[in-house]
Structure formats: structure tokens, C-alpha cells
Amino acid sequence: MKRFVSACVYILALGVAAYAIWAYAFLPLGKLMGPEMRANFLAHRIGIYTHVFAATTALILGPFQFSGWLRRRHPWLHRMSGRVYLGVGVGVGGVAALYMSTFAYGGPVAKLGFATLAAAWLYTGFRAYRAIRAGAVAEHRRWIVRNFALSLAAVTLRIYLPLSGLSGIPFALAYPIVAWLCWVPNLLVAEWAFARRTALGAPVVASKALAPE
Length: 213
Ligand code: HEM
Fold this sequence. Notes:
This is DUF2306 domain-containing protein. InterPro entries: DUF2306_membrane (IPR018750). It comes from Pseudoxanthomonas helianthi. Keywords: Membrane, Transmembrane, Transmembrane helix. By secondary structure, this protein is mainly alpha-helical. The chain has one domain. Helix content is about 80%, strand content about 0%. The longest helix is centred in the middle third of the chain and has 27 residues. The chain is globular and about 50 Å long. The site of protoporphyrin IX containing FE (HEM) has 26 residues, from helix 1, helix 2, helix 3, helix 5 and helix 6.
């Protein structure tokens, strides 16, 4: 079961990252969007490109950060890649997301949904970094799991949007709902997983290799 979930995370995260690179590096900006979103992206080119390419690094690197084998065999790689994940992916990607959330399509509910997600992404990333600098490995693990659950909002968003289209809900109504639905359940699943682990008596502590030099 654990392997199956892990395989799904790799496939979905890398799949959405590949989609983002294809759509934003090779197609004209906003080609796959409706006219309102396209106009918005064209008006904020730097913001959307910065967000998409920085955040994509989080989706590419994130799954590998959870590999116990990599952490044990190449702890330096885990540290380097973790710095890029947090600094570029979450840091740059999150600040650009916060900026873009103020222009998001879908009115105040969508704007607030994306802005809260961006703030939570930045906050959990900061807490994960601070924890590992203090050598608190278990705490680092909890915050980084929350943080990556939020990174996966990029995946869940792209699952829910076509589903809402198939269900016949108009895009203008579905988009603000999905702006919340794409991340709140992810966070709840992460909290549920922690509670389950604790109830089963499993150690929450990861490898010592995570601790700073
Ligand atoms: C988790 C924190 C994130 C937040 C708060 C966030 C926020 C946003 C916002 C506000 C927009 C503009 C939407 C609009 O104008 O209606 C957007 C678009 C976009 N974001 Fe993110 N995002 C996050 C994570 C990611 C990640 C990890 C990726 C990696 C692929 C990503 C890729 C994109 C893409 C490709 C778009 C353009 C819309 C599309 O093609 O569907 N985002 N994001």
C-alpha cells in the first residue's frame, strides 16, 4: 500500500511538472486557458512564469526528498536538493503565488483560497527549515510532510478541474471551490496520517542523516 501511494505521488507530481514545462516553456502564454485567464496571465507575465517554473522545481524534487534510501546513501544530496526545494520551489514559487493570488480568476473566494494556500506553503516551509537547522528531525519531518501535501495542491487542482467540467458545474462556479478543495483535504490527510502513525506507536523520527552538519 505504501509503495502504491509512493508510486502514485511520483507519477502525478512528475506528470504535472512535465505538463507545466510543456505548456509554459513551449506554448504561447495562456494558449490552453479561457480568454479571461489568458488576459490575466498576459498582464502578469513575470509573476506567472516565475511562479510556474519555480514551483515546478518543488514538484520535481519533492518526491525524491522522501526516499529513505537517498537520505541514507547520499545525505548531502538530500540537503542540497532540500535547499533548492525550499528556497526556489517553495520560497520563490510561494512568493510569486501570493502575488498571483491577488489577480486570480474566480473572485474573492478564489483569491483568498490561493492566498491562504500560498501563506500556508511558505509558513510550513519556513517551519520545516527552522526545525532541521535546530536538529529537530521529527519536527522537520512533520512540517515537510504538511508542506509537500500543499505542494500537491498543483496535482489535485488539475484532477478536480476536469472532474468538475465533466460533472457539468460551470467553470466560474467550480474554480473558487477548487481553489480551496485543492489543498484543505491534502492537509487533513497529512494530519490524519500523523495521528494514525502515533496511534500505531510508530516512531515519527526520520534518519539522522537529515540533521545539519
Ligand atoms: C502550493 C502553493 C501554490 C499556490 C498558492 C499556487 C497559486 C497559483 C495561482 C494563484 C495561480 C494563478 C491562477 C489564476 O490566475 O486563476 C497559479 C497558476 C498556476 N500554477 Fe500554481 N500555486 C501553487 C503551487 C504550484 C505548483 C507546485 C505548481 C507546479 C507545477 C504550480 C503550477 C501552476 C501553473 C502551471 C499555473 C497556471 C495555471 C494552469 O496552467 O493551470 N503551482 N498558481
